């Protein structure tokens, strides 16, 4: 059965003030796993200790591109120590988006290094990989064509697929054989056309249909993420968990 996780970037303001206390609150809300986006100066032993205390699973870690290229062994060792198996390429800076051929070759090398150590490399998309084209196709498709599935899996951000003008349901079907992780998030479009992420069920994304498709595709983790919270971020993830519980009550497909 699919498990429910939280991308901790959502509550970064609380983590900066109280890392351990925030993880306790995340667990109390019912999230089963957490995806890290930094460790706030904690050692692997300290992270493992709070995970054991709370029962949370380290489901993944967003790891910056330069660290994946230049400190992969160190990152692998840290993540193995906390029980995480997924290193995630999180974001490509705008100034680097004119050299996709080099990025793709780097992904092959990093993916091979991960595989040799029993780790799994995933790619987390935003909207620009859908709107930017390479060889007449969305960049995201070219990445998955050129990097073999045994070296690179998908962490599909369904919201950004939709905001990029594509159909997340189609992408889930297309890449279901390499899709262990899926970001479930909602968004509203501001008056100027820019996106604002909101709690699940409060935006424009058909998050129920996306969750249905993800479960059908045997995704291992549905991961809540809210890039920006207008109010308190812990309250936002509580509202999203309420949505997940209501969804599960209807579908009977989540363990919440």
SSE order and pairing:
Layout: E1 3-7, H1 12-17, H2 19-29, E2 33-36, H3 44-54, E3 57-62, H4 65-70, H5 72-81, E4 86-89, H6 100-116, E5 120-124, H7 128-131, E6 133-134, E7 137-138, H8 139-146, E8 153-157, H9 158-163, H10 168-174, E9 181-184, E10 186-189, E11 195-198, H11 207-216, E12 221-224, H12 233-251
Helix pairs in contact: 2-3, 2-12, 10-11
Keywords: Isomerase
GO molecular function: isomerase activity
Protein name: Sugar phosphate isomerase/epimerase family protein
Report on the architecture of this protein.
This protein is an alpha/beta fold and 256 residues long. It has a single domain, classed as Divalent-metal-dependent TIM barrel enzymes (TIM Barrel, Alpha-Beta Barrel). The chain has 12 helices and 12 strands. It has helices spanning 12-17, 19-29, 44-54, 65-70, 72-81, 100-116, 128-131, 139-146, 158-163, 168-174, 207-216, 233-251, and strands at residues 3-7, 33-36, 57-62, 86-89, 120-124, 133-134, 137-138, 153-157, 181-184, 186-189, 195-198, 221-224. The strands form 3 sheets. An 8-stranded parallel beta barrel has the order 1-2-3-4-5-8-9-12, surrounded by 4 helices. The chain has a two-stranded antiparallel ribbon with strand order 6-7. A two-stranded antiparallel ribbon has the order 10-11. The longest helix is centred in the last third of the chain and has 19 residues, at 233-251. The radius of gyration is 17 Å and the shape is globular. The mean pLDDT is 97.
């Amino acid at each position: 059965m699919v498990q429910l996780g939280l991308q901790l970037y959502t509550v970064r303001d609380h983590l900066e003030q109280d890392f351990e206390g925030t993880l306790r609150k995340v667990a109390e809300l019912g999230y089963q796993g957490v995806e890290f986006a930094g460790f706030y100066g904690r050692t692997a032993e300290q992270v493992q200790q709070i995970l054991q205390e709370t029962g949370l699973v380290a489901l993944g870690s967003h790891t910056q591109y330069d660290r994946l290229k230049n400190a992969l062994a160190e990152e692998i060792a840290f993540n193995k120590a906390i029980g995480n198996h997924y290193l995630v390429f999180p974001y490509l800076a705008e100034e680097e988006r004119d050299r996709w051929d080099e990025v793709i070759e780097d992904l092959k090398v990093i993916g091979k290094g991960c595989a040799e150590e029993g780790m799994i490399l995933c790619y987390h998309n935003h909207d620009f990989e859908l709107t930017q084209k390479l060889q007449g196709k969305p960049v995201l498709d070219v990445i998955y064509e050129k990097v073999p599935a045994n070296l690179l899996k998908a962490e599909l951000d369904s919201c950004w697929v939709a905001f990029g003008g594509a159909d997340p349901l189609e992408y889930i079907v297309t890449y279901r054989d390499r899709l262990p992780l899926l970001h479930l998030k909602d968004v509203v479009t501001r008056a100027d056309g820019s996106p604002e992420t909101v709690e699940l069920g409060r935006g424009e994304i058909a998050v129920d249909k996306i969750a249905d498709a993800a479960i059908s595709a045997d995704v291992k983790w549905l991961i809540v993420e809210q890039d920006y919270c207008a109010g308190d971020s812990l309250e936002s993830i509580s509202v999203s968990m309420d949505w997940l519980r209501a969804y599960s009550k209807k579908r009977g497909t989540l363990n919440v």
